[in-house]
Amino acid sequence: MNILEKERKLNELLSQVDKLGKGDSVLNLKKEIEAYKLNEMTKLTAWDRVLLARHSSRPRALEYINYLSPDFIELHGDRLFRDDKSIVGGIGTIDGIPFTIIAQQKGNTIEENIERNFAMPHPEGYRKALRLMKQAEKFKRPIITMIDTPGAYPGIGAEERGQGQAIAMNLLEMSNLTVPVIAIVIGEGGSGGALALGLANKVLMLENSIYSILSPEGYATILWKDSSKAIKAAEVMKLTSYDLKEFEIIDGIIKEPLGGAHFDREETFKRTKKAILDEYFKLRRLSGTELHYQRNNKVRNYGFLQRFNYENLGGLNNDKY
Amino acid sequence: MNDISKTLNKRKTNRQKIKLIHEEGSFVKAQNMDVPKGLYEKCPSCQRTINMKKNIENDYICKHCGNHFRMRAIDRIKYIVDNDTFIEKGIGFITLNPLFQDGYEEKIAKYKLATNLNEAYIYGYGEIHGQPCVIGVMDSYFLMGSMGSVVGEKVAKTFEYGVYKKLPVIIFTASGGARMQEGIFSLMQMAKTSAAVAKHSKMGLLYISVLTHPTTGGVTASFASLGDIILAEPNALIGFAGPRVIEQTINEKLPEGFQKSEFLLEKGFIDQVVHRKDLKDMLTKILSIHRRSFI
User: Which fold does the domain B70-294 belong to in CATH?
Assistant: First the structure.
C-alpha cells in the first residue's frame, strides 16, 4: 500500500468525523485517526516520498513566496528573448530583510501547468535567473532559490537557444557570487535543471522532496531497459532528503507535518521561514570573499572516490596534483 | 521415364552437389579468414567498409567522405601533443560504487581492460609546437565517456593544475553525459567542474574547449560550454538533451542536421568548426596569440 492509498483511507475517516457531528464515537474515531497517522504515515519508503514530491496538491513556490514575503514584486524577462513563466523571480522582504527570490513554479491545474510548462524551464528562464542574481549581487541582497522541476525542457527551441550553455553559465556565475545564496528543494529536484539554481552556500530540502540525477522511471529505462521498475530504482538511487543529508550533499532538512506538506500548509511555511532566517543569520556574519570561498569549498568536496596513496611508496610522486 | 528427363535430373542433382560444396567451401573459408573483430568497419555516413587500421593512421578520418570517427584518448594525445612531451597527471584514482549498483564494478573492470585506461578522462602537461599547456582528453570508448566522481575530480584538478602552473587549458570533450550509476554524485560534478573553470578564468588564463562527437548531457551543461574559445569537429553531435529524448517529448521527427556542430555554429554557440587535420595548427595559433598576454 503506497502513501496515496493510505491518504485516501485517512480522508475517508476524516469525512466520517464530519458526518457524525459530536459524541463519544467521534472522540474514539479521532483517536483512531491519530493512531493511524502515527503508525502508517511516519515510516515512508523512497517511492512514497517520490509520490509526495509530485503530489497534485503539494504547496507550490508562489504559495511559499506569498507567505514569506507579502510585499513580493515579480520581475519578468531575461532582456534577451522572452519571459519564461516556469521560473518566477523577484524582490521582496522577509521580516524586513530584503531578499531576491527565484523559484521554479508548477501549476495546480492542467491549464496552469501548460502555462508554466510543467516547471520545465527553457534557457531564457535560466538567463532570467542569472540576471536577477547579478542584480542581487549589485545591491548586496541575499538570494533564495526554490527548486521544483522535473528537469530542464528537452525541446527543439530549447536546444536552439543553448540549454546546456545557459545551465553551465548559471553554475559558473553562481560559484562567483559574493552574497549569501540559500537553495531549498520544495518538490522534485531533477537533474541539471534543478542544479542550475542549486549551487548555494546552504542547500536545504523539505523532508518529502526528492533530488536526483533523473527521474526513477528514466533511471530504470536506462539501466534495466524497463520503466516499470521505477519503484526499485527509487530505492537504489538514494534520492530522499535523509539519504542526501547522510552523503552531505545537502545541509539541512525541513520537517513536514505528518502525511506531507499539503496536510498543514501554514505549518510547513512557518518551518521553512524559520529555516531560511536561521541560515541567513549564520551566513550574514561572513564577508563576500568568505561566502565565495565557503561555497566553492563545499562544491569542491562533492564526490565519492578514493586515491591511491603515493606517500606510502616513499616519494615516488611528490607532485600534489 | 525418357532420356531427356533422366539427363535433366542428373543435372539437377549435380547442381545441388555443386551448390553444397560451394556452401561448405565458403564456410571453411570464412573460418580460416580469421578477421579480428573491428578491423573492418562501415562508415556511418557513406556506408563503405573501411580498414580501421589504415583509418587510425589517417587520424580516424574516412578517406572516402571525410567523416570523423570517434578517437581514442591516447591517439588524440599522440596526434595533438609534440612527441615525448606529455606527462600524465592525476593518476591513481579509484572508482567506487556509492549506490551499491549491481554489476557496476565489473563493468568498470571490463572497460579498464578493453580501453587500457583507468577512467574516461586523462589529463596532463603537454606541449603543442613547443607551447606549454595542460591537456585533458575524454575517451568515449570508456562507458560512453560518462562523467562520474573520478572524471569530475580529474577535470577539476586539470584546472587547478593550470592555475598552479599558470598555463592555458585545452579539453577535448566526448561524453554521453553524467554517469547514471553514481547517481547524485555525478550530478554534483557539474557544479564542481564549473566552479573549477571559474577559478581558472578569474586568474586571467585561457581555456579552449574542443567539442568532439558526441558531447551531450551534463558535460555540455558544465565545463564544455564554458570555454573562452569553443571549437568543434565537423558533424559532431552536441546538445543538452539527447535526440531520442527530444523526439519522445515533442512527438516529432527532428530536422536534418539538428544538434550537429554546423547547426550550433549557425545558432552562435561555438566559435569555429575545425577539420581534424587543421586542429593542431589552429590550437597553435590561438596559444601563440594568447602567449603575449601573460608575459
Answer: 2-enoyl-CoA Hydratase; Chain A, domain 1 (3.90.226)
